[in-house]
Amino acid sequence: MSGRTEELSSESPAPLTTVREIILENFMSYEYARIPLRGGLNLIIGPNGAGKSSVLLAISVAFGQAYTERSRKLSDLIRRGKDIARVSLIFDNSAKQGRRPIPYSKSDTFMLSRYLRRDGSYWFEADYKEIDKSEVVRLLKEFGINPDNLLIIMHQGMIEELGAVTPQERLRMVEEAVGFAEYRQRIVQAEEELGGLIGEESSLLQLIDNANQALEYWKQIYDRYQEKKKLIEHVALLNKELLWSTEAKLTKSLQSVEAKIASKLRVLEDLKSQQAEASSDADQTHQTLLDKQVELRKFYYALIRAESEKAKDESTRAAYKAVKEDLAGLAKTLDEVLAGVSEKQAKRAREYVGYISGKGVAGEADAERRKVDLEREVSSLQPEISKTEELIRKAMDTYLGFRVKSEVLSYRVKVTESDLRDLERDAREARAEMEKIAPALADAGARVETSRQPYEVSEELKLASAHVQKMQDVPDEAEKIYNDYSGNVDELKVKLAKLQENKKAMLAELESRKSVWRAAMERLVESADPAYQAVLAAADASGFIKFEEGGDIEDAGIALYVGFRGGSPTTLDPFTQSGGERSVALMAFLLSLQGRIVSPLRAMDEFDIHMDPRNREAMFKMILAQMKQRAASQYIVITPSILTVFDRSAHVITVQSVHGSTEVKELK
Which of 19, 93, 396, 535 has the highest CB neighbour count under 10 A? Predict the structure, then answer.
């Protein structure tokens, strides 16, 4: 295809093809017609209303257009009274340079058909095989044919539409027509990819920002988790320390208790020995006391006997004295008493009194002697009694001392035994506590040396446990979550760095593609501008084509400048120039591009409708000149005008209406 550049594709272009024939059946005013076409220029002429424009419309319908300038429904294109219409295009598919234009068809011709039904349905066929519309679009795209591009197919009245397009729309039409659409597509693709990268970058930045915020939050949680972890470890260490401190205290306490027990046992043994000795001494002293008490009783018995004897003697002596006194008195009165009795009785009475008096004196003398003896005995007993009493008192004191000592020692034995029982209970309790903590000690591992008491460790443990309790809201998976977020942030940063590298590369690629596109468009304008000016000069006009580059590819456009009858060129727009002037400028632009348009088929309908005869003939001369230079391309020009300029290289077809049906004739 002409107009392709090496920057677009390294693949060789497909061979050009042309439409050999158009077959119309029940299409608009055509009941059945076969319209032969040739390469180069095909002129379709005939009066208005004869069906000339229907030929170009049929080509567009066969190419897949769903909307036409004459009807909004394809069913309206079906000939009145018919239910189905057909449009078929027969392409030249003969091999050129060893390749067929449509490689999957092995025939020298290829027929593309479209069928329309009154109910609005339609379908496509390729060589009588139904195909999908996408296949038609793909086939046309391979040849650079877009029936919607006004630079390729321009229906009746569309010259005005072409004049009303913006420079930006005009540029896109040109790009597609000359095969540069891929440049734009590549730039748009790059911009989309760049936009995607920018969007992804923005998303990544947002994700990183969100992740950093989450990471900062979880960093605080993680720091608290680390603090909690240290506290838990400290609590565990304190628990071990408490265990070993308790073990040390219990061991020390047990050792102290056992030492006290041993000491108490020695004391108890000594106390029992002393108590036994004191008890023995008390018994001995008690026996001595009893003996002395017996001895004292004997002395008292002897004293009592002596005192009793002494009292008896005193009584006897008193009786003797009374008798003596009575006898003395009796002796004084005896004579008076005896005066009346015989001598004998008196003698006997005196003898008896004398006897009694003698007995009394003798008895008194014996009583006196016994008194002395008894007093001597009493005197000798009293020191012995005093001595014995003193000995008894001393023995009693000694006995009481030994008894008190024995009782005290007995009490001390009981106290010591009670202390021993308490100590043994303490020892049992300590051993029980040791046995109780033995499994925990086994699990605790190596001994933790500590000089602190359990209560000191316990107080610190309570404080540390309280701090741990305050951190119950810190989840155990905080470290994993923090590491996950940290890893995610790192991954996102790596992705961002890679994305920014790709973005930088894509920016460079985009600039490169824009540079290639810009250079291609500038070369295109530079190559088309002389032809544009030459065509305008033939119509007594001047002007130029300008490539207007905007800040973005969507802002870039192609502006046409034109001036007539010596006037300065101004921008072509729907308001400055007349309809004929716009048609001349637009035809000049179209003709300037013919050497670069890649589509093998180009068609225009009544482009000259607003032109005066002079400009119409000038344009036809230029068209004929262009067609001679490009015989490989196929042009279809439809006009109702009677041309005075003909060339035998043009293929002329006449169209006329006969009895309501259009007939076609080929001028040889």
Answer: 535
Structure-token match 């540029």, residue found? 171
> What pLDDT, on a 0 to 100 scale, did the predictor assign at position 334?
61
SS3 (DSSP) at 622: helix
Distance of CA 599 to the CA centre of its chain: 59
Give ∠ CA 315-319-323 in degrees, rounded to 5: 170
Strand order in the sheet with 570-571: 541-548, 557-564, 570-571
Check residues 551 and 436 and name the one with the higher pLDDT: 436
Q: Which of these, 588, 584, 646, 637, lies nearest to 615 by C-alpha position? A: 584
| In contact, 448 and 248? CB cutoff 8 Å | no
Which is nearest to 413 in space by CA: 278, 507, 537? 278
Coil, helix or strand at residue 365: helix
Q: Does 644 have pLDDT greater than 80?
A: no
Distance of alpha carbon 461 from alpha carbon 470, whole angstroms: 14
Question: 476-532: per-residue pLDDT in tens?
Answer: 888 888 898 889 889 988 988 998 999 999 899 889 988 899 999 999 999 999 989
Question: Distance between CA 639 and CA 43 in Å, rounded?
Answer: 8
Query: Do β-strands 129-131 and 122-126 pair in parallel, antiparallel, or remain unpaired?
Result: antiparallel
Q: Could you give the CA distance from residue 545 to residue 572 in angstroms, rounded to a whole number? A: 10
Helix (H) or strand (E) holding 40: strand 40-45
Pairing of strands 84-92, 634-639: unpaired
Cα angle: 193, vertex 196, 201; to 5 degrees: 125
Encoding tokens for residue 12?
A: 């060789």
- The band of 253, judged by pLDDT with boundaries at 50, 70 and 90, is confident
3-state secondary structure 158-223: HHHHHHHCCHHHHHHHHHHHCCCHHHHHHHHHHHHHHHHHHHHHHHHHHHHHHHHHHHHHHHHHHH
pLDDT digits (tens, 9 = 90+) for 62-120: 998 765 544 457 888 999 999 999 999 999 999 888 889 888 888 999 999 999 999 98
Residue with tokens 């009066």: 47
CA dihedral 107, 112, 117, 120 (to 10 degrees): 140
- Reported as type and span, the H/E element at residue 649 is none
Nearest to 118 by CA among 86, 82, 91, 93: 82
Mean pLDDT of 368-393: 82
DSSP code of 606? -
Q: Going by DSSP bridges, is the β-strand pair 40-45/634-639 parallel, antiparallel, or unpaired?
A: parallel
Identify which of 160, 4, 23, 173 has the alpha carbon closest to the alpha carbon of residue 91.
Answer: 23
Can you tell me the distance from the alpha carbon of 2 to that of 180, in angstroms, rounded to the nearest whole number?
11
CA–CA dist 367, 346 (Å, integer): 31
For 13, the 3-state DSSP assignment is coil
All residues at 6 or more sequence positions from 19 whose CB lies less than 8 Å from its CB, including other chains? 37, 59, 89, 90, 91, 92, 601, 634
| Amino acid letter, residue 340 | G
> Per residue in 320-332, pLDDT tens?
677 667 666 666 6
